[in-house]
């Protein structure tokens, strides 16, 4: 492998062309996502801000069909996302409702997205609906919304809040409870026109329904018999009358909790229910299975990938400049991990990664019985993941140093050979090179942030795929970025030393083959343990209905669902990490870029609220 060939004269134009190509893909993806969410211009999508009853500011995303005016009022629907989400998590439902004539408001619940963080639970101002109650009133007050035709829906936590406010407010004409359940307070006509939509394999089904077998028990429970007008109600059957608010239905499909927020079947059910209850303009109605939201989700993913991939040629272009050229550590990668040793080290790393739940439970024991962790670190889900990440990398650092001592004595290996030192004879960092490395990482990160920021401000499109990933930072979330960054940076300094140093494989016949091989191996080493962990959880769930790791109140499920998010994150950062390691010759540009991106991801997308 010859990295120097990338820095020969004449190569600059190729890198620039690739950079421009990725930027064009990004722009095209953002434009396509915007067109999808506006139904090619038929729906106006805008940011709205209003003050919650507790004094906190709430941000919402409003979908207004252009035909909705002060003289031609349309029905309105409020969508409330789940616990660990933000307003864009409701886009699948909101886009389809907007296309069919509903004015739809999807909010960042308090403590999520760009809404303000919540008050302490012991504060009398604390709003247990996290802004849902105020949001329903705000929607009904809009001049182009018919306040007599307002419905609410939500997923998971948002479904619970939707149910609460529909119970208390008789002006709400319909409610869709998605990925949650009604309780004994529901009657034949309260709340009005209620549908419950849930996956047969929803990991929280026992917690939400109080049953041990959803399919056999739920339709026979006291809660169901109180709410339904027949003695023996059945799944997927509508009872009652929409005209007098007594319509009732429980729809079950064979999916899990996460899938409910982006399921064509669930969305079709919710659309049809709101049509029958709220009567949108007939000329705007489209078949419930004609759904365009997947285009938007695919385009936001493509935009994010194009943004990340743009950094690769941009970083190469920067390293070719006179100022940043000293960052490069001109060397051949002499050390190569033997295949048998590679699998051994990867297995040890996998065993450490499987400490995920035990370490998280240890943190929560400290939080509950010793000291309130969220008093200093307010993002409890992030606290748990970062705690796990830091602890396993502390152990990893100890193991790395032991391995290095053996190899340095036996084979003369040095930290320089691994790209961890700037000096051959000792471990050390050159201040000038280090300063340039930090500056380059900050500039590359700033460029990526600017790309996302402009897309969000100009087209209301952030970087996401099913999960919230990257979005603009409020001042409070910038503080969260600064708070968590040192811990995440430590973890990535160790992790990049491990994957790019200790696990580094032999070079291939060309630079590009080496890059693809190393990237694939790095992803395999980090993703396989988590994938196997998910198999242990989901194979029994999807085949027998048994949930191996549930925990008190389903708390294990919350963190296991986070593994999907972690796997996607690690895959993306390893693509950029391996690249920056190869073109710079050291771990530091890689570690800095990984830490900046992952901290941004956590700070912008994760919830600031108590775990329910």
Q: What general outline do the C-alpha atoms trace?
A: globular
The secondary-structure element order is HEEEHEHEHEEHHHEHHHHHHEEHHHH
Structural class of the helix and strand makeup? alpha/beta
CATH level-two architecture of the largest domain: 3-Layer(aba) Sandwich
Q: What value does the Rg take, in angstroms?
A: 26 Å
What is the CATH homologous superfamily assignment of the largest domain? Alpha/Beta hydrolase fold, catalytic domain
Gap from first CA to last CA: 52 Å
Q: Give the number of DSSP strands.
A: 10
Specify the number of helices: 17
Point out poorly predicted stretches.
Answer: none
pLDDT averaged over residues: 94
Biggest sheet features: 8 strands, mixed
Percent strand:
5-15%
- Give me the CATH fold name of the largest domain: Rossmann fold
What's the helical proportion of residues? 40-55%
**Total number of distinct structural domains:** 2
Walk across the major sheet and give the strand order. Answer: 1-2-4-3-5-6-7-8
CATH class of the largest domain: Alpha Beta
